[in-house]
Write a structure and sequence with these properties.
Blueprint (H helix, E strand, L loop, with lengths): L1 H16 L1 E3 L18 E5 H7 L10 H10 L3 E5 L2 E8 L9 H8 L5 H10 L2 E3 L15 E8 L4 E3 L17 E5 L3 E6 L16 H8 L1 H4 L5 E2 L8 E7 L2 H13 L3 E10 L21 E2 L16 E2 L7 E2 L2 E4 L16 E10 L21 H8 L16 E6 L2 E5 L4 E4 L8 H4 L6 E10 L4 E8 L6 H8 L20 H18 L18 H7 L11 H7 L2 H7 L8 H18 L6 E9 L9 E5 L12
Parallel strand pairs: 11-23
Antiparallel strand pairs: 1-4, 2-3, 3-7, 4-6, 5-6, 8-9, 9-11, 10-11, 12-22, 12-23, 13-15, 14-17, 16-17, 17-18, 18-21, 19-20, 21-22, 23-24
Length: 625
């Protein structure tokens, strides 16, 4: 029964996310075939840097501006606004409630005054028909809402990527490998895998489809696994369902898949566990072997973040957290003694438990370069890396359970959950385990670059585990980092100038933040009053023109003191503001999927060992190494 309910909720979620573009009358159904594609611009980020440069700069600074063009090869993709119809079928909890109540309580992008206006003007329809605000939702009703959709800008591959002959410029996405069964790409940060939330055309699958529709169009690519929108790196896509199933099985089996990530974190890893800036309750997390045994084949205290009484009998330390039997790793019911583990231990590069290593002698115990560590850390029997016997490294293995605390907002948490008493909420606790090793430390920024190998695949697992260890990803402001870490001077400078530009446009105090008027912030009553309230569509006015004229987000692009604009002037203002908002929002976090290694169990496969790797991101390369 529970499984059927989960399936039903999943179907409801897919239905609620379903949307469609329309350029026809708001009372008509959307016709995809007649929809012209939206205008799309690919902008060098250096252009945006010019836009936010001080207007008082003299001509003598032109050399400095040219310097931006030479060193900053990043590009962003901007989709200009377009009409879009969000559609969903009535959910059980909506039956009998008024359409106004449902939109006000279930959707938060606009105030009540907007929804009243949208229902009255026909932008919100029920099963294709115009209704009053007091219409009560019935079973089987389809709710549609036509809007002028603005998407945030996203990053593309930079100008260092190999040129695409057909485009006469670098491809939008860097291709790592391609054959008849697989497409492996290097996903930029800020780019979601699939259309979701504010992103539709600016998603990995849509960009690939737009680039090569005959090869990567709808139904041609299959998801094997997902990377978070803010995470960059290796993404493996299958070209047929059977390959997707085989690869997904490899990842689910864990021992057939190894993932290597690189992250840049706060502090000198992992010493924050010992300092006052670390976790006070972490002192009891270290596992210590309780038997004087020189055997090199010591079993670790847990596997996949989960242990039984047998695996812990020679270890002391750590924290055991009881698990519900339904959350076992292998899908089978476990006994009540099954527990998730919170704690850490050390091994050498071969995987043998290193009983002589502790936090006190972890860092600086060997003289080695980052490239040496990478060679050993990424070595595997797929042929990647270099098994150098003269380079000795140690891994810190951290087990810490995770849970999704808010599905709607995608917020997760990790810890011992000792304060969580609700049985339903505790069912969401899942064991998790990640291995870390230090790559390099930069004293000037007080940040470390670390390698991470997730053993399990929980949502936001690496980010959560680094936060728990006292070393959050430096620019991951959701989990203990900062939106503008001090080690990223260029982004800090761009943020400040973009903020000033937005404040000047919005006529706000330059000393205050303009987050209240960013495009992802709900519209206010005052904005609705000024743009759409009591405005009716003229007889000779197209639906697109009417939606554009009454769009709150377009009004934000114009600014409060702007008059009427031509279409070209509005396009330019939309482009400029979208660029500015790109600078004041997160441009991705310092977490990169560096390498994926997979072993197919299919004996008929031509090559059952696959390994794909990207280059290190710029933020992971300190000049001294």
């Amino acid at each position: 029964m529970n499984r059927n309910n989960r399936r039903k909720r999943k179907r409801d979620k897919k239905a609620s996310l379903r949307g469609r573009r329309t350029s026809t009358d708001a009372t008509a159904s959307a016709d995809h075939s007649s929809c012209p594609p939206p205008r799309i611009d690919v902008i060098p980020l250096s252009n945006a840097l010019h836009l936010i440069s001080d207007q008082s700069e003299s001509a003598s600074n032109s050399k400095g501006r040219q310097h931006h063009d030479n060193v900053d090869g990043r590009r962003v993709r901007i989709v200009h606004p377009y009409p879009y119809t969000f559609a969903t079928f009535a959910k059980a909890r909506w039956i009998g409630r008024t359409v106004l109540d449902v939109y006000v309580s279930e959707f938060g992008s606009y105030p009540t005054s907007y929804y009243e206006s949208a229902i009255s003007s026909g932008r919100i329809l029920i099963s294709g028909k115009q209704v009053t605000c007091q219409y009560k939702i019935q079973r089987g009703d389809e709710l549609t809402h036509t809007v002028h959709r603005h998407e945030p800008a996203v990053a593309l591959s930079d100008y260092s990527t190999k040129m695409d002959a057909a485009l006469n410029e670098p491809p939008p996405i860097d291709i790592i490998h391609e054959d008849e069964s697989l497409l492996v790409v290097d996903k930029p940060s800020t780019l979601p895998m699939h259309p979701c939330g504010a992103y539709h055309y600016n998603s990995l699958f849509e960009i690939l489809s737009h680039w090569k529709p005959t090869c990567y169009g709808p139904g041609k690519l299959y998801t094997v696994y997902r990377l978070d929108r803010l995470t960059s790196g290796v993404v493996v896509l299958a070209k047929n369902a059977s390959m997707a199933a085989s690869l997904s099985k490899c990842i689910a089996e864990r021992k057939s898949c190894e993932k290597v990530y690189v992250a840049r974190v706060k502090g000198h890893f992992p010493l924050n566990l010992l300092s006052s800036t670390g976790r006070e309750d972490a002192r009891g997390w270290e596992f210590q072997y309780d038997v004087s045994d020189t055997d090199s084949n010591i079993s670790p205290p847990c596997e996949h973040g989960e242990c039984s009484n047998n695996s812990m009998k020679h270890w002391r330390g750590g924290v055991s957290i009881p698990l519900e039997s339904s959350h076992s790793n292998d899908g089978n019911d476990h006994s009540e003694s099954s527990c998730a583990v919170l704690g850490y231990w050390f091994t050498d590069e071969t995987g043998c438990v290193a009983t002589s290593i502790s936090l006190h002698n972890w860092s600086g115990e060997h003289s080695r370069t980052s490239s040496d560590i990478l060679d050993v850390a990424t070595y595997n029997d797929c042929g990647s890396g270099n098994n150098r016997q003269d380079t000795q490294i140690h891994w810190l293995h951290f087990a810490c359970p995770c849970r999704i605390s808010c599905h709607k907002d995608g917020i997760c948490e990790a810890g011992d959950f000792s304060n969580l008493t609700d049985e339903k909420e505790r069912r969401g606790i899942k064991p998790a385990q990640t291995s870390f090793t230090l790559l390099t430390y930069d004293a000037e920024s007080n940040t470390s670059v670390v390698l991470a190998k997730p053993v399990t695949g929980r949502t936001h697992q690496i980010r959560l585990h680094l936060q728990q260890l006292g070393h959050p990803i430096a620019n991951d402001h959701c989990y203990g980092g900062e939106l503008l870490p001090r080690g990223d001077k260029e982004s800090n400078n761009a943020y400040e100038k973009a903020q000033q530009w937005l404040n000047q446009l919005d006529n706000t105090d330059s000393s205050t933040s303009s987050y209240s008027i960013l495009s992802n912030v709900p519209a206010t009553d005052a904005e609705v009053q000024n743009t759409s309230l009591h405005r009716e569509k003229d007889d000779d006015e197209s639906t697109l023109d009417f939606i554009e004229k009454t769009c709150v987000w377009c009004a934000r692009c114009r600014g409060p003191k702007a008059g009427a604009d031509t279409k070209n002037e509005l396009h330019e203002k939309v482009l400029n503001r979208t660029l500015m908002e790109y600078f004041v929002k997160s441009q991705g976090i310092w977490l990169h999927a560096l390498q994926y290694s997979l072993k197919l169990n299919d004996s008929n496969a031509r090559d059952n060992k696959l390994c794909y790797r990207t280059k290190l991101p710029i933020w992971a390369c300190f000049s001294k190494d």
